[in-house]
Design goal:
Helix content is 42%, strand content 18%. By secondary structure, it is α/β, with parallel strands linked by helices. The chain folds into 2 domains: 20-173, Rossmann fold (3-Layer(aba) Sandwich), CATH 3.40.50.2000; 189-353, 3-Layer(aba) Sandwich (Rossmann fold), CATH 3.40.50.2000. The two termini are 40 Å apart. InterPro entries: Glyco_trans_9, LPS_LOS_Heptosyltrfase.
């Protein structure tokens, strides 16, 4: 009950700030021919690893078709190397999670003149609107059709489409037709060699139980049930339980409790690149709704995704792969999403197919 109250209070606060932001800062962009764009800025300061992977092809395909365009990105510091070294972005502007208005003003001054800004947030907050106003770009492309600042409106035009298709639509408006939507997945041979030191000489299914928030995390009972099903349908295969630095101890304990040598974890795994190399070496993947799903899709791995029953989220973030199956969970007794309440019979059928 208390959590719901807090959520409602935060929603009311955000709605008020958005309305105020529209009154103070929402002014129509000048507009211009997208065929004449020479400098493009993509705002991705709220992007996560999975979001970045899903949009990765955008940079490659734009570079191939429009090498005349300078492509800059605003993102979090921990993603800077991904965009610079693997996606081929010309310039990175790093932004902390909650910048002040003064910091946004300073950043916009440092960025200078831009022909097109792309910001694919659905409902932009007051600080987003303020920043776009400070940039004073010729064109602003986005999903927030309500804003006058957004003169290239993608909201209704791409409603219900997978997020990768929204980026493909943006490419089409820039004159890039029929793009290759294969994701760019970073590769690191040194990290792979570290993983290989702990890798068994048997087929492996990678199992990732951890998503964003408690509603997307599998508990031990769910993990144990999945490992048991894998053992039944794929005898001789092993399960690699994936972990994050803060869940490593828990996963090692789970491997010990599962017994029989059926499950193991890569103790050397510390970074997202280690997770990528684990997926690259695996024969199949099972994961809750998180970045691992999109990485596995980009690697064309047979995949079982476990999702909360949220039609809107699924339509935009489902595994973009012909090698995937998905099962959905129901809400728990408190009426809250809980990924552990998935359909076991469906999971069993899909594990047999994997």
């Amino acid at each position: 009950m208390f959590r719901r109250f807090i959520s409602r209070a935060q929603l009311c606060r955000d709605q008020f700030r958005r309305k105020l932001g529209k009154v103070l800062f929402d002014r129509a962009s000048r507009g211009g021919d997208l065929g004449q764009v020479k400098r493009l800025l993509l705002v991705r300061w709220d992007a996560k690893i999975g979001d970045s992977i899903v949009s990765s092809f955008f940079f490659r395909e734009l570079r191939r078709a429009r090498p005349d365009i300078q492509v800059d990105v605003i993102t979090a510091p921990y993603l800077a190397a991904l965009y610079r070294d693997h996606f081929g972005v010309d310039h990175i502007y790093c932004c902390k999670k909650r910048p002040s208005y003064a910091e946004l003003k300073k950043m916009s001054a440092g960025i200078g003149s831009v022909d097109l800004v792309i910001h694919l947030g659905k409902h932009l907050k007051m600080k987003d609107i303020y920043f776009l106003r400070c940039l004073s770009a010729s064109n602003v492309m986005g999903l927030d059709d309500e804003l006058r600042l957004v003169n290239v409106k993608l909201g209704d035009a791409t409603k219900g489409r997978h997020f990768s298709e929204k980026f493909a639509y943006a490419l089409d408006l820039l004159g890039v037709t029929s793009p290759d939507r294969q994701y760019i997945i970073p590769e690191d041979s040194e990290r792979r060699q570290l993983v290989l030191r702990e890798w068994p000489d048997t087929p492996v299914i990678a199992l990732n139980p951890y998503g964003s928030g408690s509603s997307r995390r599998l508990n031990f009972n769910s993990v144990s049930m999945l490992v048991k099903l894998i053992s039944e349908y794929r005898p001789g295969w092993k399960v690699c339980l994936m972990s994050t630095p803060d869940t490593k101890v828990e996963v090692e304990k789970w491997c010990s409790e599962l017994g029989g040598g059926r499950a193991f974890t890569v103790k050397a795994s510390e970074t997202i690149q280690d997770a990528i190399e684990i997926l690259r070496l695996s024969d199949a993947v099972i994961s809750v709704d998180t970045a691992i799903v999109h990485i596995a899709s980009g690697l064309n791995k047979p995949l079982l995704g476990i999702y909360n029953n949220d039609e809107s989220n699924y339509s935009e973030w489902h595994p973009n792969s012909c090698y995937s199956f998905c099962v959905f969970s129901l809400k728990n007794k408190s009426g809250l999403p809980d990924v552990n309440n998935f359909n076991v019979d469906e999971a069993e059928r899909y594990i047999e197919k994997l």
